[in-house]
Give the backbone structure.
Amino acid sequence: MGKKGAKASPAAYGSRCIICGLEKDGLEVKEDYVINAMRYFKKNITKNAKNYRLVVCKECFPKYDKARNSYVKKQISYVAIAVAFAVLLIIVAAGNLGAIVYGLAIIIFMYLLSLLSYTPGVKMPPNVKPPKVGRK
Ligand SMILES: [Zn+2]
């Protein structure tokens, strides 16, 4: 008999795609401070840590790639606007301490705002090309 039945690989067990939410294998998500913070939150506050290995499956990669690009762009522009605003504020207030604190608060706020569309990076294996994504 063929190997048809062996398609569900055991490697997929415990991996979860962050886009479709299915237990699938794929490119592993990079653990960064946002992921760590979310894990910490789940473990200590909601107590429902599942400790899945987070991945992006092949089928979801184009969708993921789009989301990641728009997230990165959004974050850069949000922070750039916030920094420009903070610098302006500090100049106008002539280095007043209150203005500096306020400026920093704006930068932090804008940064947190950009995290609303948070999309983590993935580990790209150096010898495997990511699936081609057509851009309009
Ligand atoms: Zn998926």
Q: What stands out?
A: The chain has a mean pLDDT of 83.
